[in-house]
């Protein structure tokens, strides 16, 4: 099993290209099941989750081809992928495929809308909380679906004439359930109104792509989304938006090590709240012609309190990384996690590096220390893993991160991007 070896102490200087967003690419790929035409996605990141979803879509009958790679610094990245689901050959998404990642459950929306039925295993994904699917079930039921859970599978059927437009107000903001209901409603009879919908940029990106395919969606980016059902959708060409979580992660890495880095191909407007927190921690951040510039020279890291929230709040997917940064602040900071009830698995691993963190309910208290010391640590989930990398970059000596398959789900060529900026990071294959 691969591990990542980091020798800490180097500042980061240079340019880091930001990949397309995993959390946008996955629902966009799933949207291809809504049409018998070809959906072409540009800027798709090369990640374990994308490869797994390619297998899942293939199982439903999608014909998938990859081309148009972009070359940068001698390496190809940002793939263009064509998805064509002329016929759906199987409306079952089996446990073996779906248990590995949460987003694979989302095929339920397009399958139900296009084929009138879907049998999808209850999902897996990062172990960060219980992650139920009640909102998906309630929402699809509001569109006329009949849903039963049996043997670990969600069996859904649409009325004989197809799904029917309806009104559903989410009792709690859910990114995944917003994606699914938006996709399902595009082919429903009549108009659907979703209240308290997620406002995340990835939801807006999906709506933009669906509209390019002929859907009639309005209000994306606000908490009320209206979808007027259409008879069918066509193909389209769409570019996946930049990964705001990867952007924030590298910005925090630079704030941690010190240095001067340009983050290319990304957009500061996607992560205002997180960038503001990094600024308050002592880094200078500016938008330049070539990207977002992060500089920390000399000044120490200041303690900053944050609370995670749905967009436009501080993203839960950057909480672990920010905690990594705060371990070396000059005082006491508090981090409150409001989205997932068990997203503090990184605390005990950061402690191995010398961090001083105590937990009280959903809040972590971090007493900054002046030095961290390298140690063997274990990645417990995707964003937790990268928080250990951030801490390891500033720790004295060697940090060895095991179980990096978590990292490979969401960070494209991480060791290469960091090494080019002067870090000492390498993958060790046993
Ligand atoms: C692939 C992807 O895009 N994953 C992201 C997505 O996950 P995901 O879409 O799974 O997260 P949700 O927004 O649905 O979850 C938010 C909260 O709602 C709860 N909930 C959700 C659905 C449901 O039916 N019932 C219910 O109670 C969840 O347990 C959680 O407490 O948004 C999360 C919140 O920004 C991010 O951390 C994940 O990286
Ligand atoms: C939690 C994440 O992913 P997933 O929802 O697939 O578990 C994530 O991207 O941080």
Automatic annotation (TrEMBL):
<dbReference type="GO" id="GO:0005737">
    <property type="term" value="C:cytoplasm"/>
</dbReference>
<dbReference type="GO" id="GO:0009252">
    <property type="term" value="P:peptidoglycan biosynthetic process"/>
</dbReference>
<dbReference type="GO" id="GO:0008360">
    <property type="term" value="P:regulation of cell shape"/>
</dbReference>
<feature type="binding site">
    <location>
        <position position="102"/>
    </location>
    <ligand>
        <name>UDP-N-acetyl-alpha-D-glucosamine</name>
    </ligand>
</feature>
<feature type="binding site">
    <location>
        <position position="317"/>
    </location>
    <ligand>
        <name>UDP-N-acetyl-alpha-D-glucosamine</name>
    </ligand>
</feature>
<keyword id="KW-0808">Transferase</keyword>
<feature type="binding site">
    <location>
        <begin position="131"/>
        <end position="135"/>
    </location>
    <ligand>
        <name>UDP-N-acetyl-alpha-D-glucosamine</name>
    </ligand>
</feature>
<feature type="binding site">
    <location>
        <begin position="172"/>
        <end position="175"/>
    </location>
    <ligand>
        <name>UDP-N-acetyl-alpha-D-glucosamine</name>
    </ligand>
</feature>
<dbReference type="InterPro" id="IPR005750">
    <property type="entry name" value="UDP_GlcNAc_COvinyl_MurA"/>
</dbReference>
<dbReference type="Pfam" id="PF00275">
    <property type="entry name" value="EPSP_synthase"/>
</dbReference>
<comment type="similarity">
    <text>Belongs to the EPSP synthase family. MurA subfamily.</text>
</comment>
<protein>
    <recommendedName>
        <fullName>UDP-N-acetylglucosamine 1-carboxyvinyltransferase</fullName>
        <ecNumber>2.5.1.7</ecNumber>
    </recommendedName>
</protein>
<dbReference type="GO" id="GO:0051301">
    <property type="term" value="P:cell division"/>
</dbReference>
<keyword id="KW-0963">Cytoplasm</keyword>
<dbReference type="InterPro" id="IPR036968">
    <property type="entry name" value="Enolpyruvate_Tfrase_sf"/>
</dbReference>
<keyword id="KW-0573">Peptidoglycan synthesis</keyword>
<dbReference type="InterPro" id="IPR001986">
    <property type="entry name" value="Enolpyruvate_Tfrase_dom"/>
</dbReference>
<feature type="binding site">
    <location>
        <position position="339"/>
    </location>
    <ligand>
        <name>UDP-N-acetyl-alpha-D-glucosamine</name>
    </ligand>
</feature>
<feature type="modified residue" description="2-(S-cysteinyl)pyruvic acid O-phosphothioketal">
    <location>
        <position position="126"/>
    </location>
</feature>
<keyword id="KW-0670">Pyruvate</keyword>
<dbReference type="InterPro" id="IPR013792">
    <property type="entry name" value="RNA3'P_cycl/enolpyr_Trfase_a/b"/>
</dbReference>
<comment type="function">
    <text>Cell wall formation. Adds enolpyruvyl to UDP-N-acetylglucosamine.</text>
</comment>
<dbReference type="GO" id="GO:0071555">
    <property type="term" value="P:cell wall organization"/>
</dbReference>
<dbReference type="GO" id="GO:0008760">
    <property type="term" value="F:UDP-N-acetylglucosamine 1-carboxyvinyltransferase activity"/>
</dbReference>
<keyword id="KW-0961">Cell wall biogenesis/degradation</keyword>
<dbReference type="GO" id="GO:0019277">
    <property type="term" value="P:UDP-N-acetylgalactosamine biosynthetic process"/>
</dbReference>
<keyword id="KW-0132">Cell division</keyword>
<keyword id="KW-0133">Cell shape</keyword>
<comment type="pathway">
    <text>Cell wall biogenesis; peptidoglycan biosynthesis.</text>
</comment>
<feature type="active site" description="Proton donor">
    <location>
        <position position="126"/>
    </location>
</feature>
<dbReference type="InterPro" id="IPR050068">
    <property type="entry name" value="MurA_subfamily"/>
</dbReference>
<keyword id="KW-0131">Cell cycle</keyword>
<feature type="binding site">
    <location>
        <begin position="22"/>
        <end position="23"/>
    </location>
    <ligand>
        <name>phosphoenolpyruvate</name>
    </ligand>
</feature>
């Amino acid at each position: 099993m691969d591990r990542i070896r980091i020798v800490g102490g180097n500042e980061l200087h240079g340019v880091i290209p930001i990949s397309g967003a995993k959390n946008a690419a996955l629902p966009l790929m799933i949207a291809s099941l809504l049409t018998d035409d070809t959906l072409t996605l540009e800027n798709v990141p090369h990640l374990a989750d994308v490869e797994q979803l390619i297998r899942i879509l293939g199982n439903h009958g999608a014909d998938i081809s990859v081309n148009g790679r972009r070359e940068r610094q001698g390496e190809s990245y940002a793939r263009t992928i064509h998805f064509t689901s002329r016929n759906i050959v199987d409306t079952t998404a089996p446990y073996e495929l779906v248990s590995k990642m949460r987003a694979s459950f989302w095929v339920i929306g397009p399958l139900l809308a296009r084929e009138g039925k879907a049998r999808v295993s209850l999902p897996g994904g990062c172990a960060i909380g219980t992650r139920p699917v009640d909102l998906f079930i309630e929402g699809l039921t509001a569109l006329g679906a009949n849903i039963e859970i049996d043997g670990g599978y969600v069996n859904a059927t649409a009325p004989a004439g197809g799904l029917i437009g309806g009104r559903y107000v989410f009792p709690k903001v859910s990114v995944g359930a917003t994606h699914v209901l938006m996709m399902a409603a595009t082919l429903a009879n009549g108009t659907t109104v979703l209240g308290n919908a997620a406002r995340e940029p990835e939801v807006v990106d999906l709506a933009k792509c669906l509209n390019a395919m002929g859907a009639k969606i309005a209000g994306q980016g606000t908490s009320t989304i209206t979808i007027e059902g259409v008879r069918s959708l066509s193909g389209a060409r769409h570019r996946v938006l930049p990964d705001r979580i990867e952007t924030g992660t590298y910005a925090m890495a630079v704030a941690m090590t010190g240095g001067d880095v340009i983050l290319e191909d990304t957009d500061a407007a996607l992560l205002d709240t997180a960038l503001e927190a990094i600024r308050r921690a002592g880094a200078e951040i500016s938008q330049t012609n070539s990207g977002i510039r992060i500089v920390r020279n000399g000044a120490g890291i200041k303690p900053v309190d944050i609370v995670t929230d749905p967009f436009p709040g501080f993203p839960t997917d950057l909480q672990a990384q920010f905690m990594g940064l705060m371990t070396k602040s000059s005082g006491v900071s508090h981090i409150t996690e409001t989205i997932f009830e068990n997203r503090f698995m990184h605390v005990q691993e950061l402690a191995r590096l010398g961090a001083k963190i105590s937990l009280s309910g959903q809040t972590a208290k971090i007493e900054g220390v002046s030095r961290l010391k390298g140690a063997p640590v274990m990645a417990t989930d995707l964003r937790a893993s990268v928080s250990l990398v951030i801490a390891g970059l500033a720790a004295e000596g060697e940090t060895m991160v095991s179980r990096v398959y978590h990292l490979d789900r969401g960070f494209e060529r991480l060791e290469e991007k960091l090494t080019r900026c002067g870090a000492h990071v390498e993958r060790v294959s046993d």
